[in-house]
Amino acid sequence: MNRVYLDHNATTPLDPRVLDAMLPFLRDDFGNPSSLHWLGQRARGAVEEARARVAELVAADPAEIVFTSGGSESDNAALRGAAAKAKPSRSGIVCTAIEHHAVLNTAKALRDEGRPVAIVRVGERGAVDLEDVAASLGETTALVSVMLANNETGVLQPVAEAARLARAAGALVHCDAVQGAGKVVVDVRALGVDLLTLSAHKIYGPKGVGCLYVRRGTPLAALVRGGGQERNRRAGTENVAGVVGFGAAAALARESLPADAIRVAALRDRLEARLLAIPGARRNGEGPRVPNTTNVSFEGVEAEGLLIALDLEGIAVSTGAACAAGGVEPSHVLRAMGLPAERVQSSLRFSLGRATTESDLGHAADVVAAVVAHQRR
Ligand SMILES: Cc1ncc(COP(=O)(O)O)c(C=O)c1O
Predict the structure, then answer these.
(1) Which end of the chain is less enclosed by CB atoms within 10 A, N or C?
(2) Which residues are catalytic?
């Protein structure tokens, strides 16, 4: 079977060069970076080298990078850490309706704990409305969280503009850049953010490792307490092999981004044109997007059935639906964009990667057209 993986926003394969960088730290170099002896110091050196590489990907200072267990932990740490340090009179959180659940559910938990939380709408194009951001800000706002690129539609959000509004109102700014890194240039200072989340497994690194950029001087309570690792910002013996892999992946992402972005955008646009030529197909999300993502609804076809039929044909894609207790929740992102329920339930996300080829996409587009036609019959 000709298998085509078009779900890179869910996760990317580990780049073989990343695996090679990691292997010594899973074999002989097993030291604890906190140990003073030679084995510990070898691990410490590797962790610090990785920190510099990750920092370089987002134009940060290495001392501003805090390694974590991934994007979800970083998002939790940003919101909870900022809220915990905020004055009682300024403990509000503002986030957008299309954030990943790692942000959205943390904001909702903080609301349940008594903090004011505002969730900002997005327009039909899938971008947050800056007027709504401005309207939701107040003297009680501690932190504003706006993602860089949406994981379902790929739509880039006006983070720098939202950050300017937030800072003028005296609030800190967090950006979940998990789906932006490696696809568009990320510069923490140009964005004007205090906190920024990255995850290694979305950029051809290993799962279970990520980081939070913490601008120097940002008041932030630690989420995980214990030893003094990560400058007291995140306790726990470092995931040395994971961190080394993250560093290698970040260096590769930085190197290959300019060429990858152009190549992948051209492929995505061709795939999209083929998909949109299917009768009743419509794109979800407009305006500037990351180069690898397209989200398309197929009128009259139920996305889950489509996904399963495509899987049987070897094509891996995704619906924005989330598995919740007791059933499948339709995409909160597409719903927040105001799309009708039938359109939400007929939407699929196609996300390309570094190794995706033209012939993969030609085959995938043929199969999607055939499967959609079959499901309609
Ligand atoms: C936008 C965004 N934020 C956060 C996460 C969570 O990252 P992790 O899987 O590393 O916990 C994801 C993963 O899908 C994501 O797409």
Answers:
(1) C
(2) 323
